[in-house]
Amino acid sequence: MTELSGHRRPLHVGLNLLYLVPGETGGTETYARELIPELIAAAPDLRLTAFINREAADAGAAPWTDSIASVTFPVRARNRIEWVRGEQQLLPRLAARHGVELVHSLANTGPAWGRFARVVTIHDLMYRIAPDAHLGLRGYGMRVLVPLAARRADRVITDSQSTADDLHRLLGLDAADVDVVPIGLGSRSAVTPLPESELRATLDAGERPLLLCVAAKRPHKNLLRLVGALARLTPAERPLLVIVGYTTPYEAEIRARIDALGLSADVRLRDWVDAATLEGLYAASRGFILPSLYEGFGLPVLEAMSRGLPVACSAGGALAEVAGDAALRFDPESEPAMAEAIQRLINLRGAEAERLRAAGRAQAARFQWETTARLTLDAYGRALERARRLPLIGRRAR
Fold it and tell me: Quick one: which H or E segment has residue 179?
């Protein structure tokens, strides 16, 4: 039972998806794709309307066009100015025109005004904690729009207690106004993994143990220290490190570090790979490592755990929260500590290896989208209650 049970008629929720460019929005797209069907399943009487941009409308075949009503805005999200204009100017008017009672903005920013209750999901405060992740106009926009959305919302949702603490520490939000709603783990890919022999041939891996890292080539992912930690092992001890993640200009710095340390034979940098190759990497790797300095949640850790792969990750923040005791943990600012974790991970055998595999599977199983949807509906109920209690002018002044 959710806190919507006291609502006398089907609640009409508008989902602010104006940010979403299919195939280009990463984890926030996954959040929308997984959450929408679960909201429908959890509250069949809930009325949902998706507010989408032209790119999403043109792509079609998605929960926001096939499963629920949608309204296409005359904006393209690849143009940041158009996106902000759509969210801050057009959305409040169109939401009112369509009779929306609550707007849920799913990706960090949201409208600052409107005659409806407002909920915003803030996945992280990357723009404050790892400012290199958002440069130029996007970085400036996040510094303005995220605090604005947080302070004008009737309820803030975030993925982890770590980010909730950041919201209190950096934006001054009252902890009582924030709901921690962990995201779920998606269903396993049904594709057949690339056979190990083919995978090793493409990597020129020989018989070496493989160590997998799934991370975008961005500064806060801490890949320079990961490469440095690998260099601390003797050549005979080193696994073949495979880093999979989308390319950024920062990759040139990583490659320079690899070359300077003489590790060109020990590291493979790959862009995003197809599902069969990724599943093959999970199946063939001895372990998984994620050394990030900052994460809002840490889904790659759970993805690896769900496949029975032993994991080592950073000891602080959301990664430690998500991994619990089911991973080896290390100080992400210490290359020696990271090198020790790599050695332990690669040399796991017998009972310790089985313990980590079993603990990882159990930990990953705790994160279900069904629970995410239920807790999200509870947040909607709290937002509606606050909106009823406070006059519109009071909510604007917050």
Answer: strand 178-180
Q: Among 68, 10, 3, which Cα is nearest to 37's?
A: 68
What pLDDT, in 10s, does the model give residues 264-314? 999 999 998 999 999 999 999 999 999 999 999 999 999 999 999 999 999
Residue with tokens 């709290």: 382
Residue 204's CB: how many other CB atoms inside 10 A? Answer: 10
Of 127, 166, 163, whose CA–CA distance to 144 is shortest?
Answer: 127
Which conformational region is residue 189 in: left (phi greater than 0), alpha (psi within -120 to 50 degrees), or beta? beta
- Sheet with 178-180: list strands edge to edge: 69-72, 47-52, 12-16, 102-105, 117-121, 155-158, 178-180
What global pTM score does this model have?
A: 0.89
In contact, 21 and 77? CB cutoff 8 Å: yes
How much is the pLDDT for 130?
80
Continuous segment of H or E residues that includes residue 52: strand 47-52
d(CA 84, CA 256): 37
Distance CA 353, CA 347 (A): 9
Largest Cα–Cα distance of the chain, in whole Å?
69
Q: CA-CA distances (angstroms) from residue 259 to 236, 255, 263, 342? A: 18, 6, 6, 20
Residues 204, 236 contacting (CB under 8 angstroms) = no
The candidate with the shortest Cα–Cα distance to 103, out of 231, 229, 208, 11, is: 11
Residue 51 pLDDT exceeds 80: yes
Q: What is the DSSP letter of 182?
A: P
Residue 164 to residues 46, 62, 260, 268, 282, Cα–Cα distance (Å): 27, 30, 39, 36, 31
Question: Side chain identity at 303, as an amino acid letter?
Answer: E
Q: How many CB atoms lie within 10 A of CB 348?
A: 19
β-pair type (12-16, 47-52): parallel
pLDDT 10s digits, 379-392: 999 999 999 987 65
